[in-house]
Design brief:
348 residues; single chain; Bovine Mitochondrial F1-ATPase, ATP Synthase Beta Chain, Chain D, domain3; 434 Repressor (Amino-terminal Domain); two-stranded antiparallel sheet; alpha/beta; ATPase_a/bsu_AS; seven-stranded mixed beta sheet; Rossmann fold; globular
Length: 348
Amino acid sequence: MENLRLNVALLRKKVPNLTSAAKSVGLRPATVSNLSTGKIPVGRAEVRTIVALAELAGCSLDELILRGESVEMIKTGIKTLDLFAPIAKGGTVGLVARPGMGQLVVLAEMLYRLKSEGYVTILIKPKGNHPELDDILNDVDYVTNNIEETYKVMLKEGTEKDYVLTADRSCVISGEMFTLQETFDDKGISQVTTFLMDLKGEAVDEDLPYGPLDTLWQFDADLAARHKYPAINPIYSTSSILEGSYLDPVHHSIQQRAQKLLRRYRELRAIVNVHGIERLPAAESQIYQQGEKLEAYLTQPFFVAETYTGKKGEDVKLEETLNDVKRILENPSSISEANELNFIGNLN
């Protein structure tokens, strides 16, 4: 099938308050979100849904649906992100987390890694006093107070550069982000990869907290409570890159198999926590232990946290991640025990 994906940037520009707009025409915001991130392929969407979105955006179906356009993936070197919810270069990433789940640590690590790759990093500082943001400022090139200052910085640096823009959800609610992205389009600034955080932790209660997204990182309370960082939920985090054939077939196959294993492992954990692993049949016990190893492997020490953890940060190439995960899926008996896989880089 021809590559099809929603024109997320157009939707974001044309329908700022998409949650209310979607509900007003009988669409579930969660469905719109899943179509935007690729969790539901456009080719499987109901025609009435696509037509309703086009009408909301005041555009034609050809404008709403992008066909055959390539999507460039930013390889972060962070195992769980690259495997389950990769970043589309020039797209928008939304972080959904309650306070204490580690979203600012993940953001700090992303800024550190992308700045080292030559990206110009900008933070739009939210109104009010937010001392928790101090930890991410080391790798921010510019801190701005509003969209006017942000635009001036980009003019100064040059429109041809790659930018990473970080902003709080409050900028989305106020409409500032939509105005800024509209300015990007008008001035030909296309290579802006945006990270939207949620300092108040309210996004978890919203169906479409940021409007359409290219990538969604859903943080997981259970992983955070068990100190399995980064606490990114591998089941509910997703990306438009996963849609169609944008993703390498090998990557897609391994991603799907790993997600299936972790989904079943989570179901079995509920039983083990109450009754113990001895209550599981032999085959289920093997799946549980396999999932336990994969979950542990997906933890990773960060460079920005070295001072606090005493562990050296690890960068794992995507090819290494895929090979390691494939090995856990196909030959788990050759892998160390789960407790030896916590916070390592690649498998030895």
